[in-house]
Amino acid sequence: xxxxxxxxxxxxxxxxxxxxxxxxxxxxxxxxxxxxxxxxxxxxxxxxxxxxxxxxxxxxxxxxxxxxxxxxxxxxxxxxxxxxxxxxxxxxxxxxxxxxxxxxxxxxxxxxxxxxxxxxxxxxxxxxxxxxxxxxxxxxxxxxxxxxxxxxxxxxxxxxxxxxxxxxxxxxxxxxxxxxxxxxxxxxxxxxxxxxxxxxxxxxxxxxxxxxxxxxxxxxxxxxxxxxxxxxxxxxxxxxxxxxxxxxxxxxxxxxxxxxxxxxxxxxxxxxxxxxxxxxxxxxxxxxxxxxxxxxxxxxxxxxxxxxxxxxxxxxxxxxxxxxxxxxxxxxxxxxxxxxxxxxxxxxxxxxxxxxxxxxxxxxxxxxxxxxxxxxxxxxxxxxxxxxxxxxxxxxxxxxxxxxxxxxxxxxxxxxxxxxxxxxxxxxxxxxxxxxxxxxxxxxxxxxxxxxxxxxxxxxxxxxxxxxxxxxxxxxxxxxxxxx
Length: 484
Fold this sequence. Notes:
Layout lengths: L1 H24 L6 E7 L5 E7 L5 H11 L10 H9 L2 E5 L4 H16 L5 E7 L5 H11 L7 E6 L6 H12 L7 E4 L6 H11 L13 E10 L7 H26 L8 H14 L8 E6 L17 E7 L9 E8 L5 E8 L21 E7 L3 E9 L7 E9 H4 L7 H11 L8 H19 L6 E3 L8 H8 L9
Helix pairs in contact: 1-11, 4-5, 6-12, 8-9, 8-12, 9-12
Family: Belongs to the glucose-6-phosphate dehydrogenase family.
EC number: 1.1.1.49
Function: Catalyzes the rate-limiting step of the oxidative pentose-phosphate pathway, which represents a route for the dissimilation of carbohydrates besides glycolysis.
């Protein structure tokens, strides 16, 4: 039953969020891995695992308090919730993960009985605790009568070297196809639509190159201040947290060559080629910002000068994109929540209508905007004649607003990605070679920052961010949209 399957995905999401909530509310690490055991399509069990002393009913109460009912048009919710909670169990790991994983395996085997089963392990743990959980898991909790998959949360390492060591340790115990590095921002419809829009529409595919595209802008901003991220964000910063995975993966999906098929490995083969083709970023083409707190000082969680804002100009040195600037901009504590990809096309050569736009030549530039926030939309900016006498031109947008076109509830990005894990679809998850290629792009920048050669520009909460981002864009012939 499809509805039952989706309902369990929602429960998985709630459990993962509970793990994060506990991490924020408690000073001690709350280690939670979620295991999904499949016998048949309808037979699923969820196991919570941590060092906290809880009973099955305690975990079920936590889930019930956070789980929303969104199946069968909100019908029979109580019945479905009760049925689901019966399938939820808790294992107290104690203080030794080796013994804890053995207990978890025993509990799962008890529930599975003699049936073959597949297991998914969601490791919602801090990076420094990842191997302490993953390695005992590999030895003591994997099923021998089905497949095993593990989900790992970003950020994926603190440095290139630490990431490489973690990867080597994981690959010594798991196969590459078992590892799913999850970034919930990649589960947005905006990301999935990148390849759909391009590869399934003849009108766009011929335009996707330096011949027609003047620049590409990738913007991701949040109103939420870094303060709400706590010690976690202060340690990793926006480059490791957002740019390393979300921004670079967005660029890779946007710029890749057509894959052989929609198979996850074929898509990841093309993505890694893009990442390896990104030119070394000049530190002069980087703008760093840091959010002020309410008193006008540096935010208290980022006294170490960890950036909360990052803008840069990147270039992809291959035949398709040679010379096209990819301008990226991401920050926290800004004036609005915004996530979009803006493609600006070249001016029409010898445009005989140029004078009809006045002195601003950029007014006659066609643009394609793929937007997730503030509302999902696809916008195409075209030039047309203003109705009436005379010949006056205007730049207008052809809008596809999802809320007007589709009367459906958009699933959360975690739900999308968890379903992909269940189906074995890996195309939105970073492979180990992609991870290394992304680090090769950012490691020189991080090295410069760590050497204190680049000082972040302070900006106020609710502002547009550092003014130097606008000078950076102008340097590369780009004008940011008026948003933040």
